[in-house]
Amino acid sequence: MIKVGIVGGTGYTGVELLRLLAKHPQARVTAVTSRKDAGIRVDDMFPSLRGRIDLAFTTPDEARLQKCDVVFFATPNGIAMQEASALLDAGVRVIDLAADFRIQDVQEWEQWYGVKHAAPQLIADAVYGLPEVNREAIRRARLVANPGCYPTAVQLGFLPLLEAGAIDPSSLIADCKSGVSGAGRKGEIGALLAEAGDSFKAYGVAGHRHLPEIRQGLSRATGNAVGLTFVPHLTPMIRGIHATLYGRLSREIDLQQLFERRYAGEAFVDVLPAGSHPETRSVRGANLCRIAVHRPQGGDTVVVLSVIDNLVKGAAGQAVQNMNLMFGLPEQDGLDVVPLLP
What we know:
single chain, alpha/beta, Rossmann fold, Dihydrodipicolinate Reductase, domain 2, 2 domains, 7-stranded mixed beta sheet, 11 helices, 13 strands, globular, NADP, arginine biosynthesis, NADP+ binding, Semialdehyde_DH_NAD-bd, AGPR_dimerisation_dom
């Protein structure tokens, strides 16, 4: 049985980890930390976990995380990089759900996140945790940088086209919408119901922190830099990301067949029949990316529609998928969940 620790268990990704791991056949959560809420029972804060998680939040010092087999950091950016080294030295594997180890260029990371990186020596060893791309490297990894939610939806949508040289990589567009839970579980005016409800807006148009992560992943697929315009939007829903992706065809190819072949055998990527329009509600609560590919009016523009649950395939579910790979378990363990509808 894998002994699991979760640092920062009171946020939305933390409670998603607890929900998924509560039914995992080969893993047991032994420690959940929160400095602010130490001493409070997990199921008092999250009644949905009554009868599933019999633990109280503890401080990181009291949690004895060095006794765990794997530790998830479900913390804000900048925390894991301060604590990962000690855990790795103790033989613990680490999965960071924040952005501390996602970007290989330290200077670029510091530019976008506005702080000095506390553990640049670990970045070269960190494996980017997108299983559909890095499966074998993840199996051998000690430190996994779990992808961001927008980057997961965008990369899975664009990768088949870029890998096949089917679109011009210099002029990609990612028009993306996210539910409010993507902002995290914190008191913030913009996330209040009266502020976000019954409204719709773009943000981060001049530059969003996920942009360098997406460009890095897509550039690896082509071997060259990509030109990407990425515009995120906030939508009045709790969960879900919908990415509408645009590219210019550079050669004739059967797009439906391309996507079906690329993701054949991938348990968590569902390529829908031609002409489909995936909905965010079709993946709610599940570790799934559903994709449809279109060629409007038979022209030279390709439109890919990619939907995920930002808290599952975009965060906690993908992290559990990575854990399964790291410990040689079936990828579906703990993740064989039917999406919630309605």
